[in-house]
Amino acid sequence: MRGYTSDKDGYLTRLRRIEGQIRGPQRMVENDEYCIDVLTQIAAATKALQSVSLGLMDEHLKHCVAEAIAVGGDTADAKVREASEAIARLVRS
Question: Is-contact 68 78, C-beta < 8 A?
Answer without folding.
Answer: yes
